[in-house]
Specification:
Helix content: 40-55%
Radius of gyration: 21 Å
Distance between the termini: 42 Å
Structural class: alpha/beta
Order of helices and strands: EHEEHHEEHHHEHEEEHH
Length: about 260
């Protein structure tokens, strides 16, 4: 793995009544020690797992896979603040990677679509004002950039189903050894597509040694062999087997006895 530990330094007393410092997890935070290339953050909504993941993204300065830069995204203001008090130890430095939330994909798809359109418009402008010489040479670099985007992402990611586009994003952007921080990818993926993502992650870990840290509620996603699960609960974090998580146990109970579970609601 690339990240070995995450610690939280003491934060100013005047911050204690503000989010995210009010989270029990932040107040009780102990170091996270990573031992696998695939790590999962698991816990209920509000447990702090996404907040820590976002702060790690801000600290490592990996790109935000959306239409904004991470430091310009107002929804990540708390994460940017928290990042100032993190201390992350790396086993290896890398500039590769990204941070992505399911909701960022729509912005990313629109951004790529706009880039392709802008390049197309630029080509037409050159053609319209061309006075002589080798037109193909004049527009070659622009067409090359446009075709590269289309080849990598397709001409219109938005035209795909959300799951198809999300997977296309992953296959296109996970290109080498890096830190890949992913928040709840299951929101955009069917169970079959989740398995496709798992297959991609396993292959990339084997071929590049990348480090994937994923916040998830999905028992399917957290079932990857040779991974580790950090379970966020009651303001603390502990490593557990994924079969010990409430997500797995509840899903198992419903599948085995849906009528019984519904009677207890």
């Amino acid at each position: 793995m690339i990240i070995s530990t995450v610690r939280l330094r003491n934060f100013p007393e005047e911050e204690k009544d503000k989010f995210p410092w009010t989270l029990p997890l932040i107040q009780n935070f102990e170091e996270l020690v990573f031992e696998k290339n695939i790590s999962f953050f698991v816990g209920e909504n509000g447990s702090g797992k996404s907040t820590i993941l976002e702060a790690m993204a801000a600290y490592t300065e990996v790109p935000l896979a959306g239409s904004l830069r991470l430091e310009d995204d107002e929804s990540l203001a708390a994460a940017n603040s928290l990042a100032n008090y993190l201390s992350i130890r790396f086993k290896e430095k890398t500039s590769r990677g990204f941070f992505v939330r399911a909701e960022d994909f729509i912005g990313f798809a629109r951004h790529i679509k706009k880039e392709i359109k802008d390049l197309s418009d630029e080509i037409e402008e050159v053609k319209a004002g061309w006075k002589g010489g080798d037109l193909k040479l004049a527009i070659g670099a622009i067409e090359g950039e446009k075709n590269s985007l289309i080849q990598r992402y397709t001409a219109d990611l938005e035209a795909m189903s959300h799951g198809e586009g999300f997977l296309k994003f992953f296959t296109s952007r996970i290109t080498g050894k890096g830190i890949y921080l992913i928040d709840e990818p299951e929101a955009a993926l069917s169970p079959t597509r989740q398995l496709s993502l798992l297959s991609l992650i396993i292959e990339k870990v084997k071929s590049t040694g990348s480090h994937f840290i994923i916040a998830t509620h999905s028992p399917i996603i957290m079932s990857i062999p040779d991974s580790e699960v950090f379970y966020f609960s009651e303001g603390k974090v502990e490593k557990v087997d994924y079969r010990e998580t409430e997500h797995y146990l509840l899903t198992k109970s419903i599948l085995e006895d849906p009528e019984g579970v519904m009677r207890e609601l």
